Amino acid sequence: MPITPDRKRQLVTAALVAPAGLWLFVFLVLPFMAMVVFSFGERAPEGGYQAAFTFAQFANLPSRAAAFWNTMMIAPIGAFLCLIVAYPVAYYLAVKSNPKYRLVLVSLVVVPFWTSLLVRTYAWMYILGSRGIPNLLGMIGIENVRLLNTPGAVLLGIVYGYLPLMIMPIYVSLEKLDRRLLEASADLGAKPVSTFFGITLPLSLPGVMTGVALVTILLLGEYLIPQLLGGGKVFFIGNALVDLFLQSRNWPFGSAIAVTLVVVVVIVLSVAMRIAWKVSGSRQVDLV
Where is the ABC transmembrane type-1 domain (predicted)? Predict the structure, then answer.
């Protein structure tokens, strides 16, 4: 029986998608299924997992309420601060910068990713520590300033670490902006502020929502920045997971927290996609 063109296209598509699908199934779906199974188990006497079927781990989630609260409060604030800093940068790169140097400027935004986040965070530990900015402030008479191990230090590290992830989606949206719309707005007598809020901002909202969703979702599982810049005083869900899996070896409880975190991420992503679709009208919005 001859293969029709449509059937041939379907087979080619399946062959191209199969490796990625297999990769996601093995390294994403199977580990998540294991976490779900563990979350209904019990901690073995020597630590780890012991087979059982109980909801006790989920009932114990309030004991880690502080980690959930810190994460749910600081992660959106960090994403918002990233947006405040990133939008002017992306706007300058996409609209105002010289096209001749635009590629170089965009490359400079990506350059920090070439260095380990651990190294960059340690640099901020020195800057915010007693021998950094507080020492300089002490020289001019401002004593007893503590910057490290505070929520402010964690937010600063978040903005510094995740800023490129916010800039790039917004830059892509602004770079695709039809300049004729801006020229038409100016010809019709609109002020620059009116043009920005009436044309530029609405057309860039898909990129804004993409950046906000991307940064927020990654921050929900952040561990390194609160550990180093928060000094154990700003506890995220990621820190709770490391403690449960590596220190107390309570795998079922850690799995319950991880499963809950995944559910929260899915909800955040769904809400963000819904909001982005509504505010952008019929324009396509891609968040992942």
Answer: 68-272
Q: Which domains does the chain have, with CATH numbers?
A: 30-279 (1.10.3720.10)
First to last CA, the chain: 40
Asked if 85 and 165 count as a contact pair (C-beta separation under 8 A), the reply is no
Measured CA to CA, the distance from residue 229 to residue 117 in angstroms comes to 12
Q: pTM for the complete prediction?
A: 0.83
Q: Is 169 within 8 Å of 214 (Cβ atoms)?
A: yes
Question: Would you say 257 and 237 are in contact if contact means Cβ atoms under 8 Å apart?
Answer: yes
Percent helix, strand and coil across the chain, each to the nearest 5: 75, 0, 25
pLDDT along the chain (288 residues), means of 10: 75 88 91 93 90 92 90 91 95 89 89 86 90 88 86 93 93 87 83 87 87 88 91 86 90 94 84 71 46
- 10 Å Cβ neighbour count for 281? 9
107, two tokens: 């490359």
State the residue for tokens 């070439």.
114
> CA 206, CA 146: separation in Å to the nearest integer?
39
Task: Please tell me the distance from the alpha carbon of residue 188 to that of residue 61, in angstroms, as a whole number.
Answer: 58
Tokens of 8: 């041939």
How would DSSP label each residue in 19-64? Answer: HHHHHHIIIIIHHHHHHHHHHTSEE-TTSSEE----SHHHHTGGGG
The confidence score (pLDDT) of residue 153 equals 93
**What is the helix (H) or strand (E) element at residue 49, kind and residue range?**
strand 49-50
Cβ–Cβ under 8 Å, residues 264 and 69: no
Q: What are phi and psi of 49, to 5 degrees?
A: -120, 140
